[in-house]
Here is the input.
Amino acid sequence: MKKLITVTALMLSALCSISASAAEGDVGVAATMDDRYCTTCHGADGVGNLAIEAPRLAGMEGWYLKRQLENFRAGIRGTHAEDIPGLEMQPMAEKLSNESITDLVDWIGGWEYVPAAVTVEGNDRQGRTAFQSCAACHGANAEGNEALGAPALAGQNDWYLITQIENFRSGVRGSHQDDTFGAQMVTMSKTLRDEQAILNVVSYINTLQK
Amino acid sequence: MTTPVTRREFLNLLGAYGGTSAVLQAGAALGFMPNTSQAADISLMANNGKKVAILGTGISALTTAWELTKAGYDCTLLEASHRPGGRMFTVRSGTVIDEIGNYQRCEWDNDPHLYFNAGAARIPSIHSSVLKYCKELEVELQVFVNESKTAWVQDDAMNGGKPIRNTDYSSSMNGFISEMLTKSLGKGQLDSDLTESESETLLGMLRSFGDLNEDMLYKGSVRAGYGSGGFLDHGTKRDVVALRDLLKTRLAGSVMVTTQEGTGSGPLLMQPVGGMDRIIYAFANRLGDRIKFRAPVTEVMVKDDGVEVAYEQDGETQLLKADYCFNCIPSHLMSGIPNNFPDEYTEAMNYIRRGRAYKAAFQAKERFWEKENIYGGITWVNAPSAQIWYPPHNIHGKKGIVLSAYNFGGANYTEMSQEDRIEDFLSAGEKVHPNYREMCEKPITIAWHRMNHMLGCAPRWARSRGGWSEKEEHMYETLRAPVNGRHYMIGDQATQHSAWMESAIQSAHYALADLDQRVRTEPA
Ligand SMILES: Cc1cc2nc3c(=O)[nH]c(=O)nc-3n(C[C@H](O)[C@H](O)[C@H](O)COP(=O)(O)OP(=O)(O)OC[C@H]3O[C@@H](n4cnc5c(N)ncnc54)[C@H](O)[C@@H]3O)c2cc1C
Here is the structure.
């Protein structure tokens, strides 16, 4: 057996190098410096990643995606000191050019929609009642309404919906003076009285996944 | 010392600086030198062609691949990045730093001495597995100087902001500590359990430890360096820095402990000649085209008889079917990759927090530190940049790479722009070296929290400073047990002492031993 190992080891050392990246003869490939790094945080195929608190992007409407990237870039979103996940996203958008945003919206638009896994459980029947006031803007099936600027909620990670509603309620999101769309949600989020009400409405949204 | 600090005052101060727990920890650690004096002897049963998928190319993954390949397994490594090595990353001329939202390309002179270990940088002599592979794979090592007594300590709150030499600081601190302990000896508190002869020994030790005079008082020491003379003429002592002044900085904890070996630090450490990634490439070049680069894993499905791994390459999704899978993808990234792991496994994965750390470095036009009698070691500053390291290699050469920031814990650089980071370390450094800014060429910075495919410096399991909870111990056991005997989580995330290469390698050895056991007992 000992002999076998030596032979394999020798064979291995003969099998070197693809292309130089660190020093002459080292394996590796050339680095690219593009802006398509989103999946590192947002999960493989953009399915969202709880450990990073980065939501699902796959299936997101292009117009909403574009606006959020522009808002992050301009510091309209993701600059509040208590917005820890937002503060992680904001620098990711800071250096994006208009062309890059167009490319990203295009690229992400090609990802398959997969509804996010259900991770919370509340009273969806009570949530259904509360949702009636949301439906006016977000659509009866939470499918979103471009004309009103309200995105789809169905299929989004439930943990993310909860943090966003809480963020709107506390003003962590939507209180920047130029965040006109966010401001509407600050008002609307106050119709949900407490954590339980938020949980209920999100549980109801979970039942609407296409 | 204008007004003496009383013992009570001193102990209070010590307490405020975490001294008590530091003392307790030191006590508890006695006799607990990590049991790494012997590297594990890996002797896997030779195996013909079982297929193994290895996810990521961290040192744990490369160790696994190397050992399995030697034993005849058929390994494929999938790496999301363009380069192998994860957190063992060396920056030199031409290197791309893929910090997300802050890409940089290193433009330093092309010279083998001019490199910077942006991740792991130091090898302690007790990390036997790391050293074992360096030897086996012929990675040349050299000494790394972790502490230099001529390096500086600077804090705006101390000595009017003027830096003092490490030796000024530590000699005086040792002197004052000795003086105070000596005073309390014989008063029945400290020495009630000591025999007369033990007390005498202790007294003698304190006297020489602190360089006290005949009256057992600290009145300065030539160990702090001479005020003048010292060679042709008699040396004179320098002025004593008052204890109260020394206590104005919170840097004491760092200045006084860099030489403690057991934690993996120490005065003598090692580094590979030419950069830490020499270890990575020693493995990776031998593994050759078994490694697929820019091949991010997008799904992991554990089956009854193996593991199916989907990955992307050149825009196409590929499927790799293997008998076994070893996975060092950081758990917080694995959470975003669809899988069919059991719930408690996923729960454990999601539980681990990712630490924040950052470093910065620049090419120095001249080796200005050598003109200040510094040839390595660390200067401590009270700023987000925290540390300055001077390269111990290529002494008296033309240029050198200076580490100009290294800190962890807070967000700091993670949320700062490149310009602000550079300004931070320049303004901190020029309080120590007046010509610092002028000497700085082509600075680079790296915030590990934002590094592509890593997003963290080290996994953090324990939420409480007091140690691991029972729940955490349980989750840890869950995560390091294989799923269905097929999928192994490896890397320093699957150890109880993260942030060390040694831990990552030992996680691989642990998993390999388990695999070997299974293969040996398999019906033929
Ligand atoms: C700033 C800093 C200083 C350090 N200093 C020291 C030191 O002085 N001494 C010491 O011993 N240790 C040090 N360490 C720790 C040491 O670097 C690590 O413990 C060790 O390198 C971890 O190895 P690993 O095997 O866990 O894998 P990692 O290095 O964590 O590798 C993970 C791999 O997974 C890959 N990956 C991620 N996503 C995917 C995907 N979807 N598909 C495929 N691959 C993927 C990554 O690209 C990477 O290659 C330091 C670390 C840092 C950050």
